Amino acid sequence: METLNGKHISLRALEPEDLEFVFELENDENIWALSNTQTPFSRYVIKQYLENALKDIYEVKQLRLVICDKKGNSLGLIDLFDFDFKNKRAGVGIIVKNPDNRDKGHGGEALKLLVDYSFSHLGLHQLYCNISEDNKRSIQLFTNNGFIEIGLKKDWNFNQGEFQNEYLFQLIRA
């Protein structure tokens, strides 16, 4: 896959050199609730994951891209998951690692690039995302990019001793 270039950021495939970046991100307990992670990942497991990340989306049913600034610095990750070619849909997830890099438009630009790529190159008909009811920043990001709330899953996730509701958002190709 070629690099997807935007005005301020680009999306690129994972490289072996991303080991430490992905390791730190996946082991950040502050974002475990977003990814339903329960335990830390070893460098060995992340290294194996990176080796398999080169496989085709049609084989592994997911695509993870690194969000980079114009200097090539890694800012975060954006994913297509549960890729379903038959039904032409996939889930979307996004995280910008450093809080200082959030609310600067990087996530919105990355999401727009991924949506365009999904519809024009992968031929998808729809994308969806699952967002915790209290994650106002993500709700705004996805609604600003055309995703529509289609449902609320009550008591869907159990985090820090309590159940939390989760919204389901969907974007259908026009």
Please name the defining characteristics of this protein.
174 residues; alpha+beta; Aminopeptidase; eight-stranded mixed β-sheet; 6 helices; 8 strands; GNAT_dom; EC 2.3.-.-; Acyl_CoA_acyltransferase
Task: Describe the protein's architecture and organization.
There is one protein chain. This protein has helices spanning 19-26, 32-35, 43-52, 57-60, 106-120, 136-144, and strands at residues 4-5, 9-13, 63-69, 74-84, 89-96, 126-132, 148-159, 162-172. The mean pLDDT is 90. The protein is α+β, with helices and mostly antiparallel strands and 174 residues long. It has a single domain, classed as 3-Layer(aba) Sandwich (Aminopeptidase). The chain starts with a strand and ends with a strand. It has an eight-stranded mixed sheet with strand order 1-2-3-4-5-6-8-7. Strand 4 (74-84) and strand 5 (89-96) form a beta hairpin.
Question: How does the major sheet shape up?
Answer: 8 strands, mixed
Low-confidence stretches: none
Structural class: alpha+beta
Return the CATH class. Answer: Alpha Beta
Determine Rg (CA atoms, Å): 16 Å
Number of helices in the DSSP assignment: 6
Look at the structure and give the mean pLDDT: 90
CATH superfamily name?
Answer: Gcn5-related N-acetyltransferase (GNAT)
The CATH architecture name reads 3-Layer(aba) Sandwich
The CATH topology corresponds to Aminopeptidase
EC number: 2.3.-.-
Organism: Hyunsoonleella rubra
Protein name: GNAT family N-acetyltransferase
Keywords: Acyltransferase, Transferase
